[in-house]
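On clarity, I found the account of how folds are encoded harder to follow than it need be. Since the whole study asks how a given chain folds, the encoding of that fold should be made plain. For illustration, here is how one protein appears when written out as sequence plus structure tokens:

:::
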Amino acid sequence: MVLILTVLRLIHILAGVFWAGSAVSLICFIEPAVRKAGPAGEKFFAGLWQHTRMLFFMNLSSLLTALTGVVLYWLVSNGNPLAYIGTGIGMGFTLGSVAGLIEFFNGILVMGPTSAKISALGMQMQTAGGPPTTVQLDEMGMLQKRLNEGGKHGAILLALAVIGMAVARYL
């Protein structure tokens, strides 16, 4: 059992560090620089998603973090999460888990579909053979705003998850 817990914890921590670090880096540093760079920044950002596997690894790390976290939570609570929540460590891990799972589902239900719509609309605008229409520009602006706000909320949730996990043992 110790080996299983160790392996699960290692996967959970490494995947979680990558997921949270990538999200915070994107929202706090890369996205603002892309915005300030204008069209060249947008081209870079499109290339980042299209020519690297960053999105794949962010999605994989979020999935691994969530799955191993749920299994770890079940194992360390001895299958009784309600009793575990009543302990200090259980409360810390619960709050961190809830924040992480909310962001995981935000990624699946909001961020992923919004990114896909932005990508499809961008391709449509590029292949149209002329300047984008006002409707397209308005839709792109709305989608980018939704993605930016979702990213900021996600970075905060992941920071809260990391904090909850980091301090749980001391509660």
In short: The radius of gyration is 19 Å. The chain has a mean pLDDT of 91. Residues 118 and 142 are 10 Å apart (CA to CA). The chain has one domain: 2-170.
